[in-house]
Amino acid sequence: MPAGVGVEDTGLVRWDGCGDLRHGNTGAQGVERSIHREFSSMIFADRSDAGQRLGRRLQSFAMTPNLLVLGVPRGGVTVAYEVARALHAPLDVLLSRKLGVPGNSELAFGAVSVGGGRYLDDDMVRAAELDEKTVERLTDEARQELNRRSLTYSRAVAYRAGKPPLPVTGQTVIVVDDGIATGASAVAAIQALRPLQPTRLVLAVPVAPPATWAWLRTAVDEFVALDLPHPFAAVGSFYRNFAPVEDAEVLDMLRRASLAQAFESSLNHNSGP
């Protein structure tokens, strides 16, 4: 956590008993007021720059056994690729998708993840005046897109020499995205990972709002953010270059990361007794 940042514990995360994780706004403004900090935001050149800085911040994990870095496609994979390089860790993808408000898709009212997990922000659903039928329709559309991406990224199996996606059980898992605003996609990802029983679950991003950091840190073992600016604009406003990342780029990064891991393994094998 950056020096000078102190956040009070809050009870902002609750399960609704139906497989969804919901966030109730029960004091976010008070949380933000509890953070005493001059406003001075980091600006990243691009996602690679952010990933390199985040990798340096996470160096304490470099010698951790059974370490795995998971990037949230698509933009988060660029950041995760640099983190994995810095930590000499394997890289894979974690699929989740934001549920955007109609007419303002960048404003999330929730998210879904592969495996059926869903998170809804009750306050945002009410504020956007979304009825249940609309929420379910948008959920179905998002899940269809997740299925498409799942098929697309399954091509990455070829880069792992036919091996299945990297295991999570018993691993220290670092989930990386290019930034967090509402926390919707992150919560969906966490919800998908918890049943797989990682030894330790870490969320790491270049930038996040203080209130989101405060409530999401209760859902993971550790939440690392390079900057917690307040007031908070859109994630893209903290990057000079925030161009969209294409599927082909994600696949290429997975390929390069897999080759790097194979090369390091061969060096370790050849240098052994």
What features would you describe in this structure?
With 273 residues, the protein is α/β, with parallel strands linked by helices. The chain has a single domain (13-268), classed as Rossmann fold (3-Layer(aba) Sandwich). The chain is built from eight helices and ten strands. It has helices at residues 28-33, 47-57, 75-87, 122-127, 132-153, 184-193, 210-216, 247-270; strands spanning 13-15, 20-23, 67-71, 91-93, 96-101, 104-113, 118-121, 172-176, 200-207, 222-227. Strands 1-2-7-6-5 form a five-stranded mixed β-sheet. It has a five-stranded parallel β-sheet with strand order 4-3-8-9-10, sandwiched between helices. Strand 1 and strand 2 (20-23) form a beta hairpin. Helix 2 packs parallel to helix 3 (75-87).
Q: Strand portion, in percent?
A: 15-25%
Give the number of helices.
Answer: 8
Secondary structure: helix percent: 25-40%
Shape: globular
- Give the termini distance in whole angstroms: 41 Å
CATH architecture verdict: 3-Layer(aba) Sandwich
Order of helices and strands: EEHHEHEEEEHHEHEHEH
Task: Enter the CATH topology name.
Answer: Rossmann fold
Which class best fits the helix and strand makeup? alpha/beta
What is the rounded Rg? 18 Å
Total domains = 1
Provide the CATH top-level class. Answer: Alpha Beta
User: So what's the oligomer here?
Assistant: single chain
- Low-confidence runs of at least 5 consecutive residues: 1-39
Mean pLDDT score = 79
Strand order of the largest sheet: 1-2-7-6-5
How is the biggest beta sheet arranged? Answer: 5 strands, mixed
Number of strands: 10
